[in-house]
Amino acid sequence: MNRPIMDMNNMTNSAVKKVVLAYSGGLDTSVILKWLEDEYECEVVTLTADIGQGDEVEPAREKAKKYGVKEIYIEDLQEEFVGDFVYPMFRANTLYEGEYLLGTAIARPLISKRLIEIAKETGADAVSHGATGKGNDQVRFELGAYALNPDIRIIAPWREWDLNSRQSLLAYAEAAGIAIEQKQATQSPYSMDANLLHISYEGGSLEDPWVEAEDDMWRWSVSPEAAPGKPTYLELGYSKGDIVSINGETLTPAQVLTRLNAEAGANGIGRLDIVENRYVGMKSRGCYETPGGTVMMKAHRAIESITLDREVAHLKDELMPKYASLIYNGYWWSPERKMMQQMIDASQLPVNGEVRVKLYRGAVSVVGRKSASNSLFDQAIVTFEDDQGAYNQIDAEGFIKLNALRMRIAGRL
After folding, report:
1. Distance CA 34, CA 211 (A)
2. What would you measure as the largest C-alpha separation in the chain, in angstroms?
3. Which of 80, 189, 372, 392 is 20 to 30 A from 385 (CA-CA)?
């Protein structure tokens, strides 16, 4: 008999003995750390995940030690992030609402996974995150956590406390003795989230969707106008739908994305400015910088164009919006996403070969594609020259008449 699922969030604060916190070391999560200790009177374990955000993660260890944390996890998850999350997503050519490459959304299931694993390792009965009550990330973190541990207690401070402004956070930090780094001269006015796939920018002047983003906001790419006047060519090697080499050099997944970010960013590629529909119901304007991912998307469709059967390719395109919504809305660990992934991965078995791309002033152009073992492109059939009888053009007459039959019948009415 299945045991009933307990609503752990209805338990009293005193029931929490130990909590694992997703901890960046910044102001918000440092305040959360102290607040958890004060409000729940519990032990806090911290997880600081390096998924390629570009910031030093080791300082988080010293900060956590300073605040009395005894169990501190500082982990390099870049290879797992790209290999087990980014690559599977790109096999599906995934775009949310036709544009967004899901850089933030795809990072959350990995962090949820590690929070739950560490909770098990340390005997913690709760996990906590710093996502606000207005955004998608709270949903993504918590759906993932519940899928992996149905009985876990989740603490979302932004939905519980009354520290609802920057000033109230600063006041709490000062009263609690939390050091505030004074970087006002260089601090970005935007709310930013970064990992190896992208950087997102929200807030500030971007809250007005009519206002153009300032050029100095972007971190990873030059503007297309300032990009070099000479194109960059890259040859990407594919195995089962994943990039495994660049210009003949075998690379790991994280190395591939790092290299593509650098090459594409230098050529002004990967900037996106959109208004998207959040799962919680509101529209949000966001700017995203995804240089390497932009190249990956274009090149993957190119290698599929010569290696995938027509109906398989079209079926994938029909399923992709649903798959994208599942990831955006936080259902990475759901049974339906897993089922779809099995089908997507099976489709990628023949997706092997090379794609040559040209990067030039903000644009990615596919200029070559080939597959020695799996190409369905038959030059003998498609040629405009003498095909030596490989294709009988007379066959097209019956094909056309059969497909026109229903329209001819309707047209006679």
Report:
1. 38
2. 86
3. 372
Task: Give the architecture-level CATH label for domain 192-308+350-370.
Answer: Alpha-Beta Complex (3.90)
Tell me how far apart the alpha carbons of residues 182 and 184 are, in angstroms, rounded to a whole number.
Answer: 6
Structure tokens of 369? 């594609």
Which architecture characterizes domain 8-176 according to CATH?
Answer: 3-Layer(aba) Sandwich (3.40)
Three-class secondary structure of residue 193 per DSSP: strand
Place of tokens 């309707």: 410
Tell whether pTM > 0.90.
yes
Between CA 330 and CA 105 the distance in angstroms is 7
pLDDT tens figures, 53-110: 988 888 899 999 998 999 999 999 999 999 999 999 999 999 999 999 999 999 999 9
151 counts as catalytic: no
The catalytic residue among 91, 108, 271, 337 is 108
Burial of 38 (0-12, 13-18, 19+ CB in 10 A): exposed
Q: How far is CA 358 from CA 174, 257, 352, 353, in A?
A: 52, 17, 20, 17
Q: Are 304 and 313 in contact (CB under 8 A)?
A: yes
Tell me the C-alpha distance between 208 and 79, whole Å: 37
Domain chopping of the chain, boundaries: 8-176, 192-308+350-370
221 included as an active-site residue? no
Does 191 qualify as catalytic in the annotation?
yes
Cα 265 from Cα 280, distance rounded (Å)? 32
**In the annotation, is 28 catalytic?**
yes
Report the DSSP pairing between strands 199-202 and 283-289.
Answer: antiparallel
Dihedral sign for Cα atoms in the order 95, 100, 102, 103: positive
Among candidate residues 61, 84, 125, 191, the one labeled active-site is: 191
Rg (CA), the chain: 25
